Amino acid sequence: MDIKVLKNIVNVARTGSITDAAEQVHVTVQALAAQLKKLEDHCGFKLFDRTNKGVSLTQEGVGILPHVLEIVRSSERMQLKINQLRQSRNQRLPLRVALNSTLSMEINQQIMGGVVSKLAGYNPIFSCSESPDNLTKLAKDEADMVVVLGDSVPENYHSLPLKGLRIEVVASSSSNDRAPACAVIKPLPECPYSSIFSRFAERRPGMLDAATVFHSGSEIVSVSMIKSFGGVGVLSRAVAEANDLFIWPGFSDFLDVYLVMKEPWIIEEEFPLFCAAPTPIRSFDAISA
Fold first, then answer.
1. Tens digit of each residue's pLDDT (9 = 90 or more) over 231-256
2. Whole-number Å distance between alpha carbons of 273 and 143
């Protein structure tokens, strides 16, 4: 049985939903349902009961789940050991790690410390950019490990959530005048804030009708546009506060943060828990200086 299938089944058990589990592991619902059926056929009994509210483990499923978990964890430990043995035969290998510029300096330092402590046999080379740029680096083989916001994790890569770390996203403008905006800064579809902007726009029907829409693929560019055009857009709370922008009350959303890797160099259980009180990052003016 493919270890990835077993990992996916564990996610079904954790979420209680095939749909939610499929979203988390970035496969279709149909593909995950087929994997589950194949495993149940192999076992000769049902692992889950299906209802309109989701799925729940059968008695047999409860009995076998601990063994599935042990296999998954053993596989991750074995892969980690294989990687360590490979690197021990050579000199310290370079490992290109792209941090995320949306995060505070303190949070990025914590990530750097966690990576260095778990990859003693490697020589990490750090860079820093926003989520879309990091995903481009990964796709172009310009990075081995990247930090991204939201659920835009590409297939065929290994990812782990940075536990305890969530980014609050708010609607911001250059003034506290909440009249219909003359300019709206809309994130490009590949930006992690795109879906949050859509939810904000749904709460403000007609906001886009008379406004000039500017598209942005960067949070730093969005800040500049908001200040230049007197527009409204969505930013992380830390960036909005650091740039003295007005934060619209009554709306906020959150994004999880992921470490995406070409190989499972680090497993979730080994990465440190983050404290949920980051210091605001530098203002746009300081970044541009």
1. 899 999 999 999 999 999 989 999 99
2. 24
Last residue of a domain, one of 87, 122, 155: 87
Q: How far is CA 251 from CA 19, 90, 198, 232, 284, in A?
A: 27, 52, 12, 13, 23
CA–CA distances in Å: residue 94 to residues 59, 159, 160, 249? 48, 20, 21, 46
One domain for residues 80 and 159: no
150 and 57 co-located in one domain: no
The Cα–Cα gap between 55 and 37 comes to 13
**Whole-angstrom Cα distance, residue 66 to residue 265?**
24
Contact 56, 49 (CB under 8 A): yes
Query: Could you tell me if 186 and 265 lie in one domain?
Result: yes
On whether both 121 and 225 belong to a single domain, the answer is yes
Instruction: Indicate whether this model's pTM tops 0.70.
Output: no
Is the distance from CB of 267 to CB of 186 less than 8 angstroms? no
Give the pLDDT of residue 233. Answer: 93
Question: E strand or H helix at 249, and its extent?
Answer: strand 246-261
Whole-number Å distance between alpha carbons of 289 and 278: 23
How many structural domains is the chain composed of? Answer: 2
Give the domain extent around 213: 92-276
Query: Does 233 reside within a domain?
Result: yes
What are the tens digits of pLDDT across the range 84-129?
Answer: 777 666 566 789 999 999 898 899 999 999 888 888 778 899 999 9
Residues 29 and 74 in one domain: yes
Nearest to 196 by CA among 205, 186, 206: 186
Q: Are residues 122 and 29 in the same domain?
A: no
